[in-house]
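Next comes one such specimen:
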Amino acid sequence: MLISHKHKFIIIEIPKTGTTSLRKALRTLGVVDVFGKPTVGKLRRERLAFYQHGSIMDANEALKHRGRDLDEYFKFSAVRNPWNRYFSFLTYYKTKLKYYQETKEPLEENQQRQKKYILNLFGGKTDRQILIAIIEKFSHQKKYLININGDVVMDKIGQLENISNDFNVFCESAGIIPTPKLLHENKSDSQFLIKEELYTQELIDMVAKKEKWVIERFNYKYT
């Protein structure tokens, strides 16, 4: 998550929805006070810390712990076509696998943990089996945006497919002028993977059931 106390905004960074681009664009302006840190391992070490892919409930708890009120902040996030999002996880991890297999550079703690996870994920599995494991593992997008009662509490939800325009709307609402230019970052190499060859009807339906909320709200379709 990204937090600005001066401009009173919070950006909830749902994984694989283009948030790396938002981070880099806003970092250059110096308007962000809190850059959420990566989660280390399966469990978070500090329950009330700000994490990169923390939910709005996580943000609320961490802010309350510091005597701040979530309602004072403009809450923004972005979602993505869910079938493409899970496929993007696969291409990302495949790119990282190649990197970890070839690099001679020393790895930081988070990288070491990620390497271990990726090697285990890919060990002896087909690409389709890995995609299934990813769909089963990662949270649906609505989970990042709801409060304790299950209600979506965001002020603006953009879409990766329209992120430049939605980011401009967010910047205007947060008083960030001029709007920084977004560059697509964190691209993964998908040249050896074809989405249509991996998604069976069973997997298409599996994602449709899991991501029912975002599909219905934003009229996403498997394409």
In short: The beta strands are 2-4, 9-12, 34-35, 74-79, 156-159. The first strand starts at residue 2 and ends at 4. Residues 132 and 203 are 7 Å apart (CA to CA).
